[in-house]
């Protein structure tokens, strides 16, 4: 890139980062702001009297706690556990089923493979709101309403097409020689895939798992539709309960939002190198 364009590029990057991070920063500031100051007009861009009472409310619930957030705070631990169970399950299923399907697309030649891949990707273009009623009827007939299994099935169906495409694109970049060498050593195709092929594709597998986890972790529509009680509600649904038709505790709402974004943020930060490597290789070379 020519040097005269670099200043403009840096300015654009700073503006883009500010645009993306400003809502998160505002949420963090509100989490240490009391309710009266949060509702002040004009708004305070920085809290004049910072407080950690909103965080204490989650770890030290007491009788003086605002009634609008009492039930939601009590349901938070179970909601976090439910979100973790659904997220981990979706991630595991995406890696297991996605890797098998992607291996078939990458290594086997069969009629209609290209068309089938297009159909998989086209299914991602269907808006969730357009199929939520049929899905609700299906889950009702299967007796899976208010059950985490329904969320795992639906979130897997939502994320699996992209996972297959990403993994198949990455698998095509792996030389066949490593598989041939394993087969010469009398490995079956399944053992060669598990012991030799998949370890080489570890960056893309990690990227796929993180993608599945983060997609299900932040999902709101399906958990709201398929669950009706705190025993099966996920974190986004419980966070929304801090706001009602009559009032909203913006401090508790923002604090719960901070708790909600921490796991995916730490996960992405931890596996950043592998995610970038897996996504870049699978998307560009495919």
Automatic annotation (TrEMBL):
It comes from Micromonospora rhizosphaerae. The lineage of its organism: Bacteria, Bacillati, Actinomycetota, Actinomycetes, Micromonosporales. The chain crosses the membrane at residues 7-29, 84-106, 118-139, 151-171, 192-214, 250-271. GO terms for cellular component: plasma membrane. One of its GO terms (biological process) is transmembrane transport. It is a multi-pass membrane protein. This is Carbohydrate ABC transporter membrane protein 2, CUT1 family. Its main location: membrane. Pfam families: BPD_transp_1. Keywords: Cell membrane, Membrane, Transmembrane, Transmembrane helix, Transport. It is found in: Cell membrane. Belongs to the binding-protein-dependent transport system permease family. Residues 80-271 form the ABC transmembrane type-1 domain. It comes from the Bacteria.
């Amino acid at each position: 890139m020519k040097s005269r364009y670099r200043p403009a590029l840096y300015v654009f990057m700073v503006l883009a980062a500010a645009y993306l991070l400003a809502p998160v920063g505002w949420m963090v500031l509100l989490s240490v702001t009391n309710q009266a100051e949060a509702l002040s007009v004009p708004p305070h861009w920085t809290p004049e009297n910072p407080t950690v009472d909103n965080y204490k409310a989650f770890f030290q619930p007491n009788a003086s706690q605002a009634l609008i957030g009492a039930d939601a705070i009590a349901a938070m631990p179970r909601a976090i556990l439910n979100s973790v169970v659904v997220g981990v399950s979706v991630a595991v299923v995406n890696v297991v089923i996605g890797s098998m399907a992607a291996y078939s697309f990458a290594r086997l030649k069969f009629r209609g493979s290209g068309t089938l891949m297009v159909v998989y990707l086209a299914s991602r273009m269907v808006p969730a709101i357009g199929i939520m009623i049929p899905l609700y009827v299906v889950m009702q007939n299967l007796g899976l309403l208010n059950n985490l299994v329904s969320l795992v099935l639906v979130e897997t169906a939502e994320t699996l097409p992209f996972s297959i495409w990403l993994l198949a694109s990455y698998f095509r970049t792996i030389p066949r020689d490593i598989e041939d060498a394993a087969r010469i050593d009398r490995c079956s195709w399944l053992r060669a895939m598990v012991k030799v092929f998949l370890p080489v594709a570890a960056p893309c597998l990690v990227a796929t798992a993180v993608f599945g986890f983060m997609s299900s972790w932040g999902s709101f529509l399906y958990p709201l539709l398929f669950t009706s009680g705190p025993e099966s509600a996920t974190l986004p649904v419980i966070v929304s309960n801090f706001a009602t038709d009559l009032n909203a505790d913006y401090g508790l709402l923002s604090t719960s939002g901070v708790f909600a974004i921490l796991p995916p943020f730490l996960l992405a930060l931890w596996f950043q190198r592998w995610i970038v490597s897996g996504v870049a290789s699978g998307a560009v070379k495919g």
